[in-house]
Specification:
- This protein is α+β, with helices and mostly antiparallel strands and 150 residues long.
- It contains two helices and five strands.
- Strands 1, 2, 3, 4 and 5 form a five-stranded antiparallel sheet that branches.
- β4 and β5 form a beta hairpin.
- The radius of gyration is 14 Å and the shape is globular.
């Protein structure tokens, strides 16, 4: 199975879970177990992609990670996304790596603020608030693979 096939399978399988994740976080008043900061470049023409880096703070230690993603649907343009946020539903560092899914449908013109919730196959959720700069139109679903820098 190719990398893109695994990404698509993972976010297709978790799309249903993702739709209610924001409401679940709000209703249960979960406490974050860590914090993240992310810098990502998104690009696309029909099939889109993204590359980036980030840092997770968990149990008082900082851990660098990289991001690689793919989005399927209507994609065109290039934008940069910078975000910070909280991590939920993680009891060990090993649970953080994986394929995170999100449902998207956005137009970015110049710059804007927004947020999103991502969830991986281990149930770990990231709630991100950030800014986007650039020009990009994206309708579809997307997923991003997170791996620690070794």
């Amino acid at each position: 199975m190719t990398h893109y096939s695994r990404v698509f399978a993972a976010f297709a399988a978790s799309a249903t879970l993702m739709m209610g994740s924001g409401q679940v976080l709000a209703e249960t008043a979960k406490q974050p177990v860590g914090q993240v900061s992310i810098d990502e470049t998104q690009f696309g023409f029909i099939v889109g992609g993204s590359v980036g880096q980030g840092e997770l703070t968990f149990d008082g230690q900082k851990h660098a990670f990289k991001l690689e993603g793919v989005s399927l649907g209507a994609n065109i343009g290039v934008s940069k996304f910078a975000a910070t946020g909280d991590v939920y539903d993680m009891t060990s560092l090993e649970q953080f790596e994986g394929i995170y899914a999100k449902a998207t449908g956005s137009v970015t013109l110049g710059g804007g603020k927004g947020g999103m919730i991502l969830q991986n196959q281990n149930g770990v959720m990231m709630r991100l608030d950030g800014t986007t700069q650039g020009l990009q139109f994206n309708v579809g679903t997307s997923g991003v693979t997170v791996r620690f820098v070794k």
